[in-house]
Amino acid sequence: MHGLQALARARTASGDLENAIHDHLLYSIGKTTAAASLADWRMALSRAVRDLVVDPWFETTRRIYAEDRKRVYYLSMEFLIGRLLEDAVLNLGIEDHARRAMYRFGVNYDEVVDDEPDAALGNGGLGRLAACFLDSMSTVGVAAYGYGIRYEHGLFKQRFREGWQIEQPEDWLTQVHPWEFQRSESVYPIGFGGEVRQKEDGRTVWEPAETVLAAAYDTPVPGWRGRWVNTLRLWSAQATQVYDLEPFSRGDYLAAAAPAVLAETISRVLYPDDSTPQGKELRLKQEFFFTAASLRDLVRRFVAHHKDIRKLPEKVAVQLNDTHPAIAGPELVRILVDEHGLEFDEAFLVARGCLHYTNHTLMPEALERWPVDLMWRVLPRHMQLIERIDEAHAVSTHAANQPRPDSVKIIDGGNVRMGDLAFISARKVNGVSALHTDLMKRTVFRDLHALHPDRIVNQTNGVTPRRWLAGCNPALASLLTEAVGHGWETDLEQLKVIAPLADDAGFRTRFSKAKQTNKDLLTKYLKAKLDITVDPTAMFDIQIKRIHEYKRQLMNILEAAAAWNEMKRNPSAPFAPRVRIFGGKAAPGYAMAKLIIKLINDIGRTVNADEETRDRLAIVYPPNYNVSMAEVLIPAADLSEQISTAGMEASGTGNMKFAMNGALTIGTLDGANVEIRERVGDENIFIFGKTADEVTEAREQGYDPSAAIAASPRLAEVVEQIASGLFSPEDPERYRALVDNLRGHDWFMVCADFDAYYAAQREVDAAWADKNAWARSAVLNTAPMGWFSSDRTIRGYAKDVWEVDARV
Ligand code: GLS
To answer: What gap in Å lies between CA 339 and CA 300, rounded to an integer?
Structure first.
């Protein structure tokens, strides 16, 4: 029995699944039940579950062809998909059977699920967003491919040695990845360097000096109940020649293996920088490698069924996730001109008809720029075309004698500006929250926006409520289902129904009980994995995200220290008992972020050792924060810290996950916090600090952090304690650079916002004292989160950007 039928049966009878697991264990893994390890059981279960996805997957493909649907190609350097087994089981609706089947084999389902390594093919929000979008595209029925890189090593593992971050390589692929299918027939040669020649017939050909193969690996992405299954296609780099025979025969095995090693380097590791590009040649090669392979693949698919390549935009919508795949513009033009014989102008129109670009950050240092000489060396034909695109854009927007501002030039100051290239090559450009889109129009893309006023649109980010509510928070999910019935999993607006229940004492109690269940689970998790003991009745106050100065983990820990000082000075002051939890990695080359990690751990060490305050304050920093840790932390949070310098966090998506799970937010008016406040209401969120416009104004007026410190005795005290080595007696000078920066520069306005933050935290303390009111606010955070479902986001893209069907 196969396919949809098997899936339907698997939902009603666990026997089939049990047999399938047993068969896979025996015949795919080659183990008996007696000899099977936990990993073997996981492989067998994963394979059995994967089998259930395959026929719906083919069925989806048949429908796409039958209906000749326009497809979306989501190009992203990062897909932070995390674990897949639990998610697939949840989406297919077979959890009870999977549990029962494993139980019959005498194996603990939770341990099996927990054995799966995270697929950490991304750094943070941008990569996780791509993963949520995959889930939603399959759930709402958008015909889509995700295209990315099959990194051999995902984001590094973080350890702490004496409180310092240590990075260790991540190795998820050392075990078989049971979800993927290798597609040996889908392999494309990708060139680098070499020369561009003019042929006698007038055609231009690029003759690369070096060629690497891009080999496809497909992972099916089932949507809710397996009704629609899209594909995540990841490219792995392979050498054209496995080894060089000549040095091999001489016995020089190293030299013989060199070509393969070099080629494979391209998909070896994920660059561990979030929002701050490194500008390394290998990174440029990675970008071109996966973009070129993806475009060739989609053009091949189009040409196989359609005659006229000029109609490409009718069937193809490419989304560029940030500027990383921005080379898609020139590459698609190259394919159309050099391989399909179109004139440049027409080719550019066709390419622009297909391409769309999402901007994810406004920080000037985050916008990719590639030196022109590097581009000429690595991608000579593309560099020619970039010049053509730049010229054509100039001609179409400016009269010959009119000066062109630098801000609308793709090539400027010896660099190719990838943001401008992406903007000019795209039919639509979007920001990721209302505030961010507005700032895009007013800042980085001001002049381009003036030239193309219809191009920028907003698509506020969202997160999948399957993984981030139904999956990670069964306690709350079952309460919601009781209250509103099933259906909210794919129509999160239904949760609105619980808003009036915020005034129902019985419902509030059950809501709080679900929260307490999750807090108890987190307490156990911290004990079991890290031997950390926390009080599960205290407020769980959580900041989890990449460590970055603009996200201001520093302000959080400074405030914790100030609160500690105050508790000691005034033992009867009404501080709510709190566990302040931090989680997140710093880019290995980001010295200040690593120093902030050390400071959190140093202050934590001092504060946690203080018997006087132990009942009110604990600071916890579990290492190696990742997607699966987030799934444990978020459901257990009472307070969500979203405290970035206003105007700097494009959207945030953690903020949405927390609110969905009934945490109250303390935050600035930044990114999607603004839209969260609009929905939960002013009285159910703690907003403080300067607005984006006020930040800009303060900077323009010559902001002086030392004045802010002088005006705040609490802040001054903490800064002095750090400077004098109170938290680092073994090395009092440790924080010199950090303190100097705070006193003399403080670009991210920690000092300017400190007092407002301290005051907002005291409001939080006061609110916590009234458990009923707190629970009411928590319900009113979950209720209006429909807006932040990535299903809503994807429907928005489908309608306003891609112009594709969203229909299962
Ligand atoms: C980011 C932004 O920093 C986040 O605010 C945003 O939520 C995310 C997804 O749009 O994109 N940009 C980036 O480079 N990394 C991110 O997480």
So the answer is: 12
From ligand 1's centre to the CA of 432, what distance in Å? 8
Determine the Cα–Cα distance for residues 644 and 654; give it in Å rounded to an integer: 13
Ligand 1 centroid–CA 782 distance in Å is 23
Which ligand 1 atom minimizes the distance to the CA of 125? 17
Query: Which residues have CB under 8 Å from 216's CB, separation 6+?
Result: 182, 183, 186, 187, 233, 234, 235, 236, 293, 297
Residues at CB less than 6 angstroms from ligand 1 = 124-126, 129, 274-275, 360-361, 432, 461, 649-653, 671
Query: Given the CA of residue 671, which atom of ligand 1 is nearest to it?
Result: 5
In order, the DSSP letters of 648-716 are S-S--SHHHHHHHTTPEEEE-S-TTHHHHHHHH-GGGSEE-S--HHHHHHHHHTT--HHHHHHT-HHHH
| C-alpha span between 319 and 73 (Å, rounded) | 6
Which ligand 1 atom lies nearest to the CA of residue 649? 5
Q: What is the pTM of this model?
A: 0.98
CA of 699 to the centre of ligand 1 (A): 23
Note the pLDDT of residue 103.
97
Residue type (1 letter), 536:
P
Pocket test for ligand 1, best of 74, 458, 651, 657 (most atoms within 8 A of CB): 651
Distance from the CA of 322 to the center of ligand 1, in angstroms? 9
| CA pair distance 580, 764, nearest whole angstrom | 13
Q: What is the pLDDT of residue 4?
A: 64
The residue contributing the CA closest to ligand 1 atom 12 is 360
Closest CA to 607 of 542, 552, 537, 558: 558
Lookup result for tokens 């932040």: 788
Task: Give the chain's mean pLDDT.
Answer: 96
Type and span of the H or E element at 600: helix 591-608
- DSSP H helical ranges for 194-327: 245-250, 253-264, 281-305, 312-315
Give me the mean pLDDT over the 572-597 stretch: 97
Please tell me the distance from the alpha carbon of residue 532 to that of residue 534, in angstroms, as a whole number.
7
What is the distance between the alpha carbons of residues 466 and 490, in angstroms, rounded to a whole number? 8
Q: Which of 77, 275, 320, 323 is the pocket-test mutation for ligand 1 (most atoms within 8 Å of CB)?
A: 275
**Residues tagged active-site:** 360, 545-546, 551, 653, 657
Query: Could you give the maximum distance between any two Cα atoms of the chain, in Å?
Result: 89
What whole-number distance in Å separates Cα of residue 176 and Cα of residue 84? 13
Q: Are 567 and 765 in contact (CB under 8 A)?
A: no
Cβ neighbours, 10 Å, residue 406: 11
* Lookup: tokens for 160: 């702490």
CA of 125 to the centre of ligand 1 (A): 5
Predicted complex ipTM: 0.99
pLDDT digits (tens, 9 = 90+) for 787-802: 999 999 999 999 999 9
Q: Where residue 404 falls among pLDDT bands split at 50, 70, 90? A: confident
